[in-house]
Amino acid sequence: MSAKRDLSAPFRAAVEMYGLIEAGDHIAVGVSGGKDSIALLALLAELRRFYLHPFTLTAITLDPAFNGEEGDYSAVAALCGRLEVPYVLKRTKLWDAVQERIGDETPCSLCARLRRGTLHRVAKEAGCNKVALGHHQDDAAETVLMNLLLGATIGCFSPKSYLDRSDITLIRPMIFLTEQEIAAFVQREGLPIVKSRCPVDGVTHRQRAKELIGQLSETYGDVSHKITEALQKAHISGW
Q1: Going from the N-terminus, what domains does the chain have, and what CATH number goes with each?
Q2: Neighbours of 215 (CB within 10 A)
Q3: Of the four, 75, 113, 210, 237, which is 20 to 30 A from 219 by CA?
């Protein structure tokens, strides 16, 4: 399986600009089964074949067991087999924990926080020193907008960040790629997708931010690109 040049070039550019991958890294790829994480896995597996600094990969899926039912990730396991990437499927009760602990915090933010902690722990157990996440350019723009509108702050996730508590480094190699490009890549390469069974999928603050950016782009051009370009010019959040 080969990544097309229109994605591999900006993907590698992000890796090199922010020093995301170093020789000897063992990178855990968080694979939910959605298009973004699947594309990330495929692009990293391709980069591994020729990158100057040798690194290894392990794919990790956390099954939240939405509504008490285990998810079917057999297609992800098969893809990992084809890519020659070790695969760890961790069955959890994350959704039950969210239901029990939800209060003032939204289900999405609580679920994301619990999922992050579990992913970092499983990654360390697998011997990984870095975790790669599938956030892209549109995610970054939406995050900036949500932080501004909901928290009155200007900030975003960082391309690379070290977490002292878990002794692990988070990297986001797809920040120069758009959601549309990623979706086209996944379709073109025939990569498998595991549809999300999250009960609140599509009715989140992020979805509203996505829609607002789409509306603004009709008048002002590519707003997502302009927001991430502003992050870089002002060196906000490590961009």
Answers
A1: 5-144+157-200 (3.40.50.620)
A2: 11
A3: 237
